[in-house]
Amino acid sequence: MSSTSGIILAISLIIIMFGMGLSLTIADFRRILIYPKAIFVGLTSQIIILPIIGYLIAIGLNLSPTIAIGIMLLASCPGGATSNMLTHLAKGDLALSVSLTAIASLLSIFTIPLILQFALSEFSNQNQIINIDAFTMMKQLLVIVIFPVVIGMVVKRTSPSFAIKMDKPIKIMSTIIFVLVILGVIYSIKDVFISYLNEAGLPSLMLNITTMTLGFLFAILLKLSKPQAISISIESGIQNGTLAITIATISLNNVEYAIAPSIYGLLMFVTGAFIIIFRKSLGAN
User: Fold this and answer.
1) Residues 259, 185 contacting (CB under 8 angstroms)
2) Phi-psi region of 24 (alpha: psi -120 to 50; beta: other; left: phi over 0)
3) pTM of this prediction?
4) How far apart are CA 111 and CA 238, in angstroms?
5) Which candidate, 200, 257, 199, places its Cα nearest to that of 73?
6) Residue 280: its pLDDT value, please?
7) Residue 54: which pLDDT band, with cuts at 50, 70 and 90?
8) How many CB atoms lie within 10 A of CB 260?
9) Residue 61 burial by CB count (10 A; 0-12/13-18/19+): exposed, middle or buried?
10) Torsion sign across C-alpha atoms 64, 107, 9, 184
């Protein structure tokens, strides 16, 4: 991917994260004290269980290094604005979803470099070893993830009417950007896309369905409410695909690592829609 494309992708993610910031307040972070059990379960599902499932899928299906690293990259990313939208439509606990997205995004500065370093050392073959500078990646994540969120929160606090006015347009723009990013990745590897689709499709779908199912069961087992369980399920299975693609193309400088996140980004809307339809057919409670 060219440097110009990388800059455009980074700017796109900054816009998306700024939009997320416009929907956040300090109260969203305080919920970790108000609802510690739900927050703990959600973060455990996202930060610990999700990467473990990704690793088990990668070794269980004997994936190629490229797809295995892409799956692990995806599993290291937090939820995003899409998970909040799907939670709202599925009648989950939206406040919990937003809080988990916000806190996991902050923690991702530290967890993404660690998980990626493990994935690269575990799956890269001897001719493909790539070292990452964890500190450099942390700085990149600060610039394209944390700073835009903080700026969005500041704007919301100082000009709430503007934040409310811009909420819907930025969400629409974020969705369009996300689709364009996926299409851009597919176009850049169009000659080998079908072969990658055959290999990455099944593990991407397995990661999505398995993590959503385990997130829900984990929450129910620990006696959380059904709306809370729905939120944790979606936060566990709907990852920030744009962030994963950005890291693959900018931090790792390898667009092929973005294949699994791109395919996952398409599949997650299908499974997300299924949850919404299922919840509405039963009647949310």
Assistant:
1) yes
2) beta
3) 0.76
4) 17
5) 257
6) 67
7) very high
8) 33
9) middle
10) positive
CATH of domain 3-282: 1.20.1530.20
Q: What percent of the chain has pLDDT over 90?
A: 17
pLDDT number for residue 41: 92
CA angle 108, 68, 186 (to 5 degrees): 90
Cβ contact 226:285 at 8 Å: yes
The residue written with tokens 């704007």 in the block is 155
pLDDT at 137: 65
Q: How far apart are CA 12 and CA 9, in angstroms?
A: 5
Q: How many CB atoms lie within 10 A of CB 197?
A: 16
Q: Across residues 268-275, what is the average pLDDT?
A: 76
Distance CA 74, CA 50 (A): 9
21 residue type, one letter:
G
How confident is the model over 130-146, as pLDDT tens digits?
555 556 667 767 777 77
For the chain, domain boundaries: 3-282
How do the residues of the chain divide into helix, strand and coil, expressed in percent and rounded to 5?
A: 85, 0, 15
Q: Which of 33-47, 51-65, 108-122 has the highest mean pLDDT?
A: 51-65
Biggest CA–CA distance in the chain, Å, is 55
